[in-house]
Amino acid sequence: MNRRAVCATVASAVVFGACLAAGPAWAAPSTQVVQGEVLRLVSVADWDAASSLLPGQPVQWDVTVSAEAADPGVVAVGVSANGDAALVTDVLRCGQEWGESGCPGGPTMLESGWPIPRDGSEVELLEMADTEVAHLRLVISVAGDDAGSTQVWLHARGAGESAVIGPDGGLATTGLSPLAPWTIGAAIAMGAVGTLLLVAARRRAVGEREGRP
To answer: CA dist 146 to 113, 142, 166, Å?
Structure first.
């Protein structure tokens, strides 16, 4: 299969499709923030580049994980993925914010050439004190020439709260177990439906008070 055909096949992929361009792709990164009562995830990635990967040309995804807890505790950070495009990644942690030239003082390698499991299960990357900040960089490549797409999510758990972030945004939940990646979209959609129903109910109530049907 040639690369042009592969790219055409996955043009509608949400993220990490089997098409890519040279060097770590970082053309137009966007920033997403998930803020819970305790946990905070800040994601920076070029999702347009991630959706059209070619073998041998990775895309990088930076996620900063932090927490503000009332009592000392531990935050666990992990990754999950679901899809049909095989991916490999290097996972690096920096003690400071990533700069244009990389990690000041040099990064710590957490995973190298790691084939991300694509069964939706969460794989733990690290545990840290909730007073620490983890500046993570995932350098993700496709492993093979087959067309397809795979969604990757980063999870954090600590102080009774769970948070997850990925290409479609994220969610923080208090007092609940971490959501599987395929439930995030459903949860957000249900929230939107609930809002629409609430607006409709309010309009109906106003109409009844004013004598309108």
So the answer is: 19, 9, 23
Place of tokens 């790691």: 114
Residue with the two structure tokens 């020439």: 145
Three-class DSSP category at 205: helix
Residues in the chain: 213
pLDDT beneath 50, residues of the chain? 1-14, 18-23, 25-26, 177-206, 209
Alpha-carbon span 145 to 54, nearest angstrom: 8
The three-state secondary structure class of 175 is: coil
Q: What is the DSSP string of 107-143?
A: PEEEEEEEE---BS--EEEEEEETT--EEEEEEEEE-
14, 51 contact by CB (below 8 A): yes
**Which amino acid appears at position 148 of this protein?**
G
* Full-model pTM: 0.73
The tokens for 125 are 């990357």
CB of 19 closer than 8 Å to CB of 52: yes
- 151 contacts 158 by C-beta, under 8 angstroms: no
Question: Tens digit of pLDDT for each residue in 180-195?
Answer: 444 444 443 333 333 2
